[in-house]
Amino acid sequence: MIVRHGAQLGTASSARPIQVVLFDAFDTLVSPRIAPHLQYAEEAVKAGLQVDEQRMASAFKQAFKTLSAEHPLYGKHTSLSGPRAWWSLLIKQTMLTSGLDPSSVNRVLPRLTTNILDRFSSREAYRLSGTSDAEVLETLKSLRAISVQSSLATNSDSAILLACRDLGLSAYINLNTDVGEDERAAATLSYDIGYEKPDARFFKEAVRRAWSTHRRDSSSSSSLTEEEKAAATLYVGDDFAQDIVGATQAGLQAAWINRGNKTVDTASQRSLPSFYQVDSLLDIVDVVRGSRHTSQQIE
């Protein structure tokens, strides 16, 4: 089902046909098979630790919040050497905060850390989002069939790309981050570019990167301004504040994938000129087709 909120037909963004679709990763294209703290608990048990799952849940949430504040963007601009160091610290703090014996944790920590990091770089930790794998795969396949560039633009480091490859997504979208390495639109990761959603600079850089490989031989796309390229780009995500508000304020069109019937306050909705709401990724194909039909009517 597609719902269009606050549509103002005749504005530049609503009249421009969608040519590029950017996807959030987490709970949009891929989702954890079980909650991350439970996966941490499973690996801890395998390593010989006795775990309380409820305490692990609280510890994971606390450690994630603390590290995100102390070392934002996986420590890109702080003293950490990179994402792996950030996640390693998260694993250690989660285990210790959950009340496990420090000496026992330190004894198994190197192996435990490797096992958790390997797990979250693969299909062992993630599945394709939606009611079935077909929701994601058919959506990407259908967009490609109507000559729409699709790409990943998400708050993450490169581990998510490994998981997406393991789930078979590289057959449908470019999971390389180097612009020009593939004729398809390059993936955009917050760690690489130094900005994260909902910062407008994240979305603008994602648009720039996507359009740098979009129809290189097309004179029509090369003549568009940056604002026009953003207006012809649809961002799809599940987090209303980060994905929908962020993308819309940066000049993109936005589609909120709301599989769980989540609600947002009316004021937040009214603050945006327009956005789509869908309950399946398969609806995105119709959103794109509809944007082209509407554009032709307005012209």
TrEMBL record:
Pfam family, one: Hydrolase_like
InterPro entries membership: HAD-like_hydrolase_domain, HAD-like_sf, HAD-SF_hydro_IA_REG-2-like_cap, HAD_sf
Gene Ontology CC annotation, any one: nucleus
Source species, domain of life: Eukaryota
SUPFAM superfamilies: HAD-like
Protein's UniProt name: HAD-like protein
Gene source species: Acaromyces ingoldii
Taxon lineage: Eukaryota, Fungi, Dikarya, Basidiomycota, Ustilaginomycotina
